[in-house]
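To fix ideas, we quote verbatim one protein's residues and fold tokens.
>
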Amino acid sequence: MTGASSKKKILYVAGSSGAEDQLSELLEKYGYEMTVASSYAAGIKVLESMDKFDLVIIDLAAPDVDGLALVSKIRAMERWDNIPILVLTIPKGVDIIDDVLEAGCDDYLLKPVDPRLLYHRVQSLIESFPRAYRRVSCSVLIEVSTGKLQISGEITEIGEGGLGVILKEQLEINDLVKTVFVLPGDDVQLVAGVEVIYVKEADEGFLHGMRFEIIDSGTQSRIISYVSGAGD
């Protein structure tokens, strides 16, 4: 694993002091230049006074941070309306993830954060600028467990890290499923293994947040090209 090049700058709106020290030190080892804000208000002040960041990381467990409000506030700032935003949350907090994504967040990680996964997500968000996620509408076929059960669904978002899929049947968190789908404007059937990270009721069924667990290089490269704009 190599460090990031040209000292990309990250603003981290932190939770506890121990967490901020650990994450900042880790990303600095990877070659990123870190600025830490210990509160919502401090984070906004930093963004108002600085003119160069490549990524914002928000810890949703911070005691005074309304993650939804903070993401919305950043998106309302003309200077930062297109900066990638990554949020960190504990597993029991995933029920707010869809609202945070709707507000303009680009990706999320569950805590405790795996160092290699953190590096991958940060690098992907920064190098895939502008923003990693795109709202799409295309069909997906879900094969659950043995592969005998097949469920048709609609993708509501796709990124390098996973899918947001509306299904009529509710899957269980931590289910490992096989997904088969075709990107809009493409004709290649993509296959990926995903884990169900969160489930939330939606108008036409259940919205499932799914994180890629098994994805081959061909599928990954087509998704990266799509979300970076080449698939338009």
Summary: The mean pLDDT is 80.
